[in-house]
Amino acid sequence: MAGKGILAGLPWWVTWVVVPVVLIVVFGGLITTALGLLIGLLFKVLIAAAVIAGVIYLVRRASGSSSSSSKGDW
Predict the structure, then answer these.
(1) pLDDT of residue 70
(2) Distances (CA, A) of 49 to 8, 37, 43, 53, 57
(3) Count of helices and strands (H, E) across the chain
(4) How does DSSP classify residue 69?
(5) Per-residue model confidence as pLDDT tens digits over 38-68
(6) How far apart are CA 35 and CA 41, in angstroms?
(7) What are the angstrom distances between the C-alpha of 13 and each of 21, 30, 32, 42, 64?
(8) Does pTM top 0.70 for this prediction?
(9) Residues 3-29: what's their mean pLDDT?
(10) What is the pLDDT of residues 24-35, one digit of tens each?
(11) Burial of 4 by CB count in 10 Å (0-12 exposed, 13-18 middle, 19+ buried)?
């Protein structure tokens, strides 16, 4: 493997400290953007589910109190 050959003669702290720090600095903006997008998408899905559940609740409550139709009218 080429990666082991490059890092073979270096101290352990280069492999386990410097390399991850450099990768986080270089790709930090990309990682932050991806996490922000994922969290924003999850938040929007939860909001949509709550709104849909609220609409279903209101429609069932309104149709149950105003008419005497059965639940199979759909």
Answers:
(1) 55
(2) 52, 18, 10, 6, 12
(3) 3, 0
(4) -
(5) 999 999 999 999 999 999 999 999 988 655 5
(6) 10
(7) 11, 25, 25, 37, 68
(8) no
(9) 88
(10) 999 999 999 999
(11) exposed
- Concatenating the DSSP letter of every residue in 2-32 gives HHHHHHTTS-HHIIIIIHHHHHHHHHHHHHH
Residues with Cβ within 8 Å of residue 63, at least 6 apart in sequence: 69
CA torsion through residues 24, 30, 36, 38, sign: negative
CB-CB contact of 59 with 51 (8 Å)? no
